[in-house]
Amino acid sequence: MREMDISGDQSGQAQSQERAISKIVIIIAMQSEALPLVNRFQLTEDPHPPCGFPQGVPWVRYHGSYKDLDISLFWPGKDPTLGVDSVGTISSALVTYAAIQALKPDLIINAGTAGAFKAKGASVGDIFIISDCAFHDRRIPIPVFDLYGVGSRKAFETPNLVKELNLQVAKLSTGDSLDMTQQDESSIISNDATVKDMEGAAVAYVADLLKVPAIFVKAVTDIVDGDKPTSEEFLQNLSAVTAALDVAVEKVITFINGKSLTEL
């Protein structure tokens, strides 16, 4: 009986991979990153939270249709006390979990700005599709717990998308700080990461846990190993790089339209 259940699960997963993608959830951390996509795809803010969302949370959903796709973009909203974007791993993990539970999407896209390393050949404005996600600030120096802390996970592979759109592919390292300590740097090097953000690996964890394919589109605002202070360079380039991210995400979603997961 158990073998039949497993076989049925595998058959269902195979069928879902062959079916055309219809429902996409985009997870994005900052309002300034979200609004250009909201405007581009003509999404409208949902005044009522999806079924199952807790009352009173600041999370914002924008929803609409684009070609044959049902698109929901979630932004964690502003911190209720401080009024700034709710960036970081905790907010993104919670929103990703709630969105998957409520909407049962075919695909998650985590789009956003990020830092990157010139030692790895990155430049401001570069767009990357992420192949692997890991954490660099969860240090647990105990056997096996150390691997759990790193939490390395593969993103859903999209070789046809990468080839068609001529996108760069790189590994991503995630932490809850904008700056980088020496210990962080050692962990990022160990993760072989080109790109550094504050959400990706948390989204990957939840998507993997709930068995929803996830892809990651990251645009570089600042060079972590460059000469300028990270916060200064990030703010200086945010507007221009967000515009580049907007264009890249539109191309990605246009490519996805009408295709199954196996065709990506």
Mean pLDDT: 93
Radius of gyration: 18 Å
CATH class (first level) name: Alpha Beta
Strand line-up in the sheet with most strands: 5-9-8-6-10
CATH topology: Rossmann fold
- Determine the number of helices (DSSP H or I, runs of at least 4 residues): 8
> What fraction of residues sit in β-strands?
15-25%
Helix content: 25-40%
Order of helices and strands: HEHEEEHEEHEHEHEHEH
Which residues sit in consecutive blocks of at least 5 with pLDDT less than 50? none
| Assembly category | single chain
- N→C terminal distance: 34 Å
DSSP strand tally: 10
Structural class from helices and strands?
alpha/beta
Number of domains: 1
- In CATH, the homologous superfamily goes by the name Nucleoside phosphorylase domain
| Shape estimate | globular
Return the CATH architecture. 3-Layer(aba) Sandwich
Sheet with the most strands?
5 strands, mixed, barrel
GO molecular function, one term: methylthioadenosine nucleosidase activity
Protein name: 5'-methylthioadenosine nucleosidase
